[in-house]
Design brief:
Layout lengths: L16 H6 L13 H12 L2 H14 L3 H25 L6 H8 L2 H38 L5 H4 L10 H16 L1 H27 L14 H12 L19 H30 L2 H4 L5 H8 L5 H35 L9 E2 L6 H17 L2 H29 L14 H14 L4 H25 L1 H4 L7 E2 L1
Parallel strand pairs: 1-2
Helix pairs in contact: 2-9, 2-11, 2-14, 3-6, 3-10, 4-10, 4-11, 4-16, 4-17, 5-6, 5-16, 6-8, 6-14, 6-15, 6-16, 6-18, 8-14, 8-15, 9-11, 9-14, 13-14, 14-15, 16-17, 16-18
Length: about 475
């Protein structure tokens, strides 16, 4: 359908790709200010954080030393989805990620479901990584300064804490930086990414000097079932590369740079994850790492001949790493909500931009909401819920590539997934496979979240949708 055709109606109405792109090119939208290097750093910044620094302590209880294979399984699942994201990002270089792709391929209702799901993935995952930040802060303060914050104000709820004030401070601080400007935020993130990758490389180099092969036995105490269960938990560690796709309107050359950043950041993170996991299990036994709030620091301190300074440096690296994750993922959440509000599915006030063409009001408001979640919700409950939400988004993106190839074969594609529909089909199947590994309670929470989203759409989004009303696109406005 071309932009000149009459608008579609109903919950399955699709928004033409031409219209999606046109909405970003009239000078009233977000500012293009981010290049390929910053985008790749954005992807790495979003991926490498709580997943490798914290979640590994929970996952190794399920897999044992075979956690290496769990990382590999989760990474392979993401590769197929990364290819699909890259094709859609190069074809539809607009903010909104899977929400926007769903609008173009599956229709408004499916787009809303995806957008609501992405709010879960991005918004709630910020709370999860912020909770993990507090554990490393506690460890660093105790080791370097001999200070211990009371668990009641610094520990995660469910682990002896009542309110996690460090997590609240982190989220609000990052939200303030994002509200100031996207270019400044991207530069700060690039510096943090370089630092945290350097720390992880140093962890591998130092750790291999004290590697104990005996810690690898028994390799898979619970068999393949333990490996796949851990992979479902570890999948949380890969969440983030899709955040690159939310920058479609702020990338300098989106059709070229987005695929490079999406695939590049995922490959770099996967290789680093496997090396770090191998080093960790070679330094410490499964018993020593299981359930740890700071597993990599504990692994270094367990390794013979490694001084406490290495653990302290690792804790500092974890703090920087998790900070950059909060920055990049919170950024992605605001851009998704901004795009949905521009389409009329959320209140118009969410599209207000400041003089730097940044949705500052939305950013600060969402930051406050996420800070409340981080203050009072346990990490494990958040991580499982985010993982299933992300897998659902990846599933739809893989299916979207197949559908868009059939419905709009003439659409320009700077990047094309090879062997369609085979590779996207494998990606979709792997997403379903890992979703089925989640516990029933997680499915129940996910179902309640999606039900709440459907009610919001029925009572607000459906009646305010600009597509349903046949109204012209609305870009961001200035305060």
């Amino acid at each position: 359908m071309s932009a000149a055709d009459p608008p579609q109606r109903g919950p399955w109405a699709r928004k033409p790709v031409e219209q999606l792109v046109a909405e970003t090119e009239d000078g009233g939208g977000l500012k293009r200010a981010v290049g390929a290097l910053d985008l790749t750093a954005l992807g790495i910044g979003a991926i490498i954080g709580t997943g490798i620094f914290v979640i590994i302590g929970e996952a190794i209880e399920l897999s044992g030393p075979a956690i290496i294979l769990s990382f590999l399984l989760a990474g392979i699942t993401c590769v197929f989805s990364a290819l699909s994201y890259s094709e859609l990002a190069s074809s539809i270089p607009v903010a909104g990620s899977a929400y926007t792709y769903g609008y173009a391929t599956l229709g408004e209702l499916a787009a809303w479901i995806l957008g609501w799901d992405l709010i879960l993935e991005y918004g709630v995952s910020v709370a999860a990584v912020a909770v993990g930040w507090g554990g490393y802060l506690q460890d660093l303060l105790a080791s370097v300064f001999g200070l211990e914050l009371p668990d009641s104000i610094a520990g995660p709820p469910g682990d002896g804490g009542t309110v996690n004030l460090p997590a609240v401070a982190l989220v609000l601080g990052v939200a303030s930086l994002l509200a100031y400007g996207v270019k400044e935020s991207a530069r700060a993130n690039t510096v943090m990414v370089i630092f945290k990758v350097s720390i992880l490389v140093a962890f591998v180099v130092v750790g291999l000097l004290s590697f104990d092969g005996g810690n690898l036995e028994p390799f898979a105490p619970d068999g393949f079932g333990g490996i796949e269960s851990a992979a479902a938990v570890i999948f949380f560690a890969y969440i983030g590369f899709d955040a690159v796709s939310t920058t479609g309107e702020e990338a300098n050359k989106p059709s070229r740079d987005l695929p490079i950043a999406i695939i590049g950041s995922l490959v770099i993170a996967t290789v680093l994850y496997i090396l770090v996991a191998l080093t960790a299990v070679g330094l410490a036994s499964q018993k020593e790492l299981a359930g740890s709030d700071a597993p990599l620091t504990d692994a270094l301190r367990a390794g013979s001949g490694i001084g406490s300074w290495a653990g302290d440096l690792l804790s500092l690296g974890a703090l920087v790493a998790i900070t950059s994750v909060v920055l990049t993922v919170l950024y992605g959440a605001t851009r998704i909500i901004f795009t949905m509000a521009r389409d009329g599915l959320f209140p118009r006030s969410f599209t207000k931009l400041n003089q730097r063409r940044v949705p500052a009001r939305l950013t600060l408001g969402l930051g406050g909401f996420v800070a409340l979640i981080a203050a009072f919700v346990p990490l494990s409950a958040i991580a499982e819920l985010v993982s299933i939400g992300t897998l659902f988004a990846f599933l739809v993106v893989n299916l979207g590539v197949i559908l868009l190839r059939r419905t709009q074969p003439e659409l320009p594609r700077r990047f094309r997934v090879p062997l369609v529909p085979l590779l996207p089909g494998i990606g979709a199947a792997l997403c379903v496979y890992l979703m089925l590994q989640q516990p029933l309670v997680t499915w129940g929470r996910f179902g309640l979240w999606m039900l709440a989203g459907l009610l919001v759409y029925l009572f607000y989004g459906r009646t305010h949708s600009r597509l349903q009303r046949g109204q012209a696109p609305r870009t961001g406005s200035y305060r």
